[in-house]
Amino acid sequence: MDSLTLKSPNPRKSPLMVRMIVLTFAMVCGVYICSICLKQVGTHTKAEYVNVQVLERPCEVPNVELWEKPYVHYPQPKTFSRAECVCNPVRFFAILSTQRSGSGWFETLLNSHINVSSNGEIFSVKVRRSNFSTIVETLDNIYNLDMFTSASKNECTAAVGLKWMLNQGLMQHHEEIVEYLKTKGVSAIFLFRRNLLRRMVSMLANSYDQNVKLLNGTHKSHVHSSHEAEILASYKPVINTTLLIPHLRQVEEMVTKALEYFKSTRHIVLYYEDIVKNRTKLMDVQDFLRVPQRNLTSRQVKIHKGSLARQVENWDDIQKALNGTPYESFLHADYKL
C-alpha cells in the first residue's frame, strides 16, 4: 500500500496572515476607543456650559410672625454695597407730624441709635412733593438706602425713614400714600402735641426769628445751648385772640383727619408731652421698629420753658378767650422740663 503523505502549509505565508489579522483588530479597537473618548469629551464640555450658573442665595427671613414679614426688607442700594450686612433686615418708617411738635428733637433721639437713620424733613423741598410721582421717586430712594443725608448710617442700618409734615403733600395725596405705605411695608410713627397753644407760641416765635434772626443774623429752628435758647425765648408774641380758637380747631381737625386717613397702616401714636415726662416711651418706639434697645440722647435744648404766662405778651386776653371752651385745659397743662 502506498503510504499516506501529509503536506504542511507554507511556513512563510502563516506569519503574514497572523500579522494582518492582529493589525486589523488593533485598528478597529483604536477607532472604537477614540470614538468613545470623543463622546465623553463632548458630554463633559456640554455639561460645563449648562451647569456653570451664578445663583444668589436669598436672605432668610428672621423668625417673625406671619403678619410681620411684609415689614422685613433687604434693600439693594445702587450707590454702594451692603457687604456683609446684605442679609441684615431693614425696617421702613415715616414720622408723620406737624411743625413745632417736637419732631426735630424726636428725630435726633432716633438718630442717636447706631442702627437707625431718619433722614430729616425731606419733603420741605417743594419739587420733591410737586406730584405723587416725585413723592414715590423720593421715597424709593430713601427706602433703597440711596438717599444720602447727615443722618445716613453704614450698610448695617436696621431702620430707615424720614420726617414728614402733614402739610407737605401728605394729606393731599393721602389715599395713594396709604397704599404705598401698605404695599412697601412702611410703618408710621405719629407724633403730635397735646397742648396746641404751646405749639402756636412756638410757631409764632419761630416765624419771627426767620425774619429778625436774633442769633447774630442767623435763623435757627433748634439750638444746642442754653444761651441761644434764652435769646430766642426772649421774644414774646402777641396772639390774635379773635383767630385763636379757629386756629386751634383747624389744627385739631387736621390731626384727627390724619389719624383717620392712615388708620389702616401699621402705626404708633406718640405725643411730645408724654415723651418728655416718660422716657420709657422711647423704648416703645424701639420695640415698634424692632431695633436693639439703646439709651437715646439729644443735644437739642428746649427753647420755651416754664409757664405759658411768661411766654406771651397778652396772657390775660388769652385766658379770657379760652376759659369755658374745650381748649381751656391748654391754659393749665404745663409740665416740668
List the helices and strands and how they pair.
Layout: H1 13-51, E1 91-97, H2 103-111, E2 116-118, H3 132-143, E3 159-165, H4 166-170, H5 174-184, E4 186-192, H6 196-212, H7 226-233, H8 241-261, E5 267-271, H9 272-277, H10 280-289, H11 315-322
Parallel strand pairs: 1-3, 1-4, 2-3, 4-5
N- to C-terminal distance: 150 Å
Give unreliable regions as ranges. 1-9, 43-55
Q: Please, what is the average pLDDT? A: 88
Rg over C-alpha atoms, rounded to the nearest angstrom: 39 Å
Succession of helices and strands:
HEHEHEHHEHHHEHHH
The biggest beta sheet is recorded as: 5 strands, parallel
Class from secondary-structure proportions:
alpha/beta
Percent helix, as a range, is 40-55%
What tags apply to this protein structure?
337 residues, 5-stranded parallel beta sheet, 9% strand, elongated
Summarize the structure.
The protein has 337 residues and is α/β, with parallel strands linked by helices.
What do these coordinates show?
The chain is of the alpha/beta class and 337 residues long. Helices cover 43% and strands 9% of the residues. The chain has helices at 13-51, 103-111, 132-143, 166-170, 174-184, 196-212, 226-233, 241-261, 272-277, 280-289, 315-322, and strands spanning 91-97, 116-118, 159-165, 186-192, 267-271. Strands 2-3-1-4-5 form a 5-stranded parallel beta sheet, sandwiched between helices. Strand 2, helix 3 (132-143) and strand 3 form a beta-alpha-beta unit. Helix 8 (241-261) packs across helix 11. The longest helix is centred in the first third of the chain and has 39 residues, at 13-51. It starts with 12 loop residues before the first helix and ends in a 15-residue tail after the last helix. Mean pLDDT is 88; it is low at 1-9 and 43-55.
